[in-house]
Amino acid sequence: MFSAMKTKSFFVLVRRAFEILLGLVLFVASLVPMALMAAGLVATEPGELPLWLRVVIILVSAILIWFCVATGSRLLTGRERPGGGLLHPWLLYVGAVLTTWRAVSQGLFFGPEYAPRHHEAADELYALARSRWRKSRSSSNPGPPNGGQGG
Questions:
Q1: For residue 67, which of 36, 96, 29, 41 has the smallest C-alpha distance?
Q2: Could you tell me if residue 58 is left (phi over 0), alpha (psi between -120 and 50 degrees) or otherwise beta?
Q3: Dihedral of alpha carbons 21, 27, 30, 34, sign
Q4: Are 51 and 1 within 8 A, CB to CB?
Q5: Is the CB of residue 143 less than 8 Å from the CB of residue 92?
Q6: The whole model's pTM is what?
Q7: Degrees, nearest 5: CA angle 115-96-53
């Protein structure tokens, strides 16, 4: 039989192994936008793609590469962002808005019984983003040096 301490350490070990595996997957996934960027710049003839499309390909690919590499390195090293957590609060807000949009669209197209699960997920994302935002704001702005006393 496993004791509680062994079980806890086992779950910590499994969680860390999953973080490392996910970090490696993100590093490999960063190769996809790199290939898209290379295809958009090198593999096409100069007149084949308009300039604006090349710029869009470069910007979207660069953002995806940055996200995959930054998140993958945080997962591999086990460090959090300076404000806490793995993802920035604004990214959580974007995820919450997209989840809300999905809940509304599924409710409209497939019926109201499909929407509550996504509404709950959006509520949790909003709550997490709010708490991370407050945490990052309070850590970056500790307040007046005299403990809040006017002077």
A1: 29
A2: alpha
A3: negative
A4: no
A5: no
A6: 0.64
A7: 110
Contacts of 54 by beta carbon, 8 Å cutoff, 6+ apart = 40, 41
Q: What is the pLDDT of residues 48-64, one digit of tens each?
A: 778 788 788 788 888 88
Contact 80, 86 (CB under 8 A): yes
Distances from the Cα of 136 to the Cα of 61, 84, 89, angstroms: 28, 7, 9
Decide if pLDDT at 45 tops 50.
Answer: yes
The Cα–Cα gap between 99 and 101 comes to: 5
Task: Say if CB 54 and CB 15 are below 8 A apart.
Answer: no
Mean pLDDT of the chain: 80
How far is it, in rounded angstroms, from Cα 106 to Cα 116?
10
* Alpha carbon of residue 22 to chain centroid: 13
